Amino acid sequence: MVLSSELRSHAERIKSRYPDPRSAMLPLLYLVQSAEGHVSRDGMQEVGELLGLRTAEVEAVATFYTMFRFRPSGRYVLSICTNVSCALLGAKRLYEHAEHLLGPQAHEMTPDGAITLHEEECLGACEQAPLVQVNFLNYARMTEEQLVTLIDQLQAGDPPPSSQGVVPPDLQTTCRILAGLGPPEGWTQQNNGEARPATTEASPERPPQSTAPEVARDTESQRGRGTEPPEEQTEHPEPVEGQREEDADG
Ligand code: FES
Q1: From ligand 1's centre to the CA of 142, what distance in Å?
Q2: What pLDDT score does 141 carry?
Q3: Is residue 131 in contact with ligand 1, taking CB distance under 6 Å?
Q4: How far apart (Å, rounded) are the C-alpha atoms in residues 106 and 24?
């Protein structure tokens, strides 16, 4: 069984947010990926059981999205867009350079388990070309020198803030956030949007960094495929047009 009893109760809660349970498929797939680091056949079967669907139906959806991995993956998925806008600004060269630095096995996972290299289609932020993502967070207008530094930092488990100013958590934590569970207990969010473990003591086995809501928000806006509705409606901060005129008259 992929999902623990605790994660199963989260899954039921996620399901209950949707009028049609099958709409919960993406967050449930993220939940599976948060548990096992990728989405296995057993994981898809469990999602199917939860939603009353056949495994093949879950697989048909899961394989459409590049955010789901179907084999064990590194803690950081390094995605390099090589579609037209990025390619025109040297993205193919960036990708080949990353391949050269990380070796051919990086398409699955580097031997240290740090990085999975992935060649991406358009990530929907062409104005940031050439665009690189780490666990779905953008690193805009990447140069070869910056890429070398980024790879070093990922291998050291110390990723720099993305262009959105957020430090990417490891893949499993990212997927936990995307499933709507938030960062794990003991994680604190700092003023600059960067979340770190509650303790700041250096440790050779550094636990994953988490950034909570920004990851979900940024990812969904980039792909244009939201995974779940917001938990609560926020009030519109601005008065409506008529109201503003009344206030001015008064
Ligand atoms: S072509 Fe790379 S983000 Fe659009």
Answers
A1: 12
A2: 98
A3: yes
A4: 31
Query: Is any atom of ligand 1 closer than 6 Å to the C-beta of 125?
Result: yes
Looking at this protein, which amino acid is placed at residue 243? Answer: Q
Strands (E), 101-249: 115-120, 132-134, 137-139, 187-189, 195-197
Domains and their CATH numbers in the chain: 1-74+171-213 (1.10.10.1590), 76-169 (3.40.30.10)
Q: Please state whether the peptide bond connecting residue 130 to the residue before it is cis, i.e. omega within 30 degrees of 0.
A: yes
Scanning 52-90, the segments in alpha helix (DSSP H) are: 55-62, 84-88
DSSP track, 88-142? HTTHHHHHHHHHHHH-GGGGT--TTS-EEEEEES--S-GGGPSPEEETTEEE-S-
Give SS3 for 216. Answer: helix
Q: Dump pLDDT digits (tens) for 63-118.
A: 999 999 999 999 999 999 999 999 999 999 999 999 999 999 999 999 999 999 99
Kindly give the distance from the C-alpha atom of residue 89 to the centroid of ligand 1, in angstroms, as a whole number: 10
Q: How many CB atoms lie within 10 A of CB 8?
A: 15
Å from CA of 149 to ligand 1 middle: 22
Any ligand 1 atom below 6 A from CB of 51: no
**CA–CA separation, 70 and 108 (whole Å):** 10
Block means of pLDDT (10 residues each) for the chain, 250 residues, are 94 95 96 97 98 97 96 97 98 97 96 97 97 98 98 97 94 95 64 43 35 44 38 38 40
